Amino acid sequence: MEVLSYPRPAVTVAPGSEELAACADEAEALAERFQALADASRLKVLHLLHVRGEMCACELQEVLGVSASNLSFHLQALRHAGFVRARKQGKWTIYRLPPGGPSVFLDEFRELFRGDPSGARCTVCGSGEEMADAGKEL
């Protein structure tokens, strides 16, 4: 079996324009959107809006059993990330998912990992299969 020397010159070149590593702003925006999803209360809000449709803040607050300030904090994070939209109706603020909801974001994320990337080959044998003894997991 061939012993590899690290770092490997072929993989340490500057990132190409099609790689996320070359797009700092896009990577940061993607991370911020994932951070908005990284909370159980926010996931509950999203799912409620998906299943029940539009809801006012007082309805969400009652269903979730949270304080107004806590709900407001979570809704603001979701609105900032583009996962929730709000509209005023008299004295009420009504929340809803945008067209396509979170699935649009997940589809965009999934697109980053479509296809057969050139770096997915085993560096020892050149196959796309993972080798059981190619190295020890940390």
How would you explain this protein's 3D organization?
The protein has helices at about 25-35, 40-50, 55-65, 70-80, 100-110; strands at about 55, 85-90, 90-95. It is mainly alpha-helical and about 140 residues long. It has a three-stranded antiparallel beta sheet with strand order 1-3-2. It starts with about 25 loop residues before the first helix and ends in a 27-residue tail after the last helix. The model has no long low-confidence stretch (mean pLDDT about 85).
CATH superfamily of the domain at 25-99: Winged helix-like DNA-binding domain superfamily/Winged helix DNA-binding domain
The low-confidence parts are none
Q: List SSEs in N-to-C order.
A: HHEHHEEH
CATH topology of the domain at 25-99: Arc Repressor Mutant, subunit A
List keywords for this structure.
138 residues, mainly alpha, Arc Repressor Mutant, subunit A, 3-stranded antiparallel sheet, 5 helices
Quick overview of this protein structure:
The protein has helices at 24-37, 40-52, 57-64, 68-80, 102-111; strands at 55-56, 85-89, 92-96. It is mainly alpha-helical.
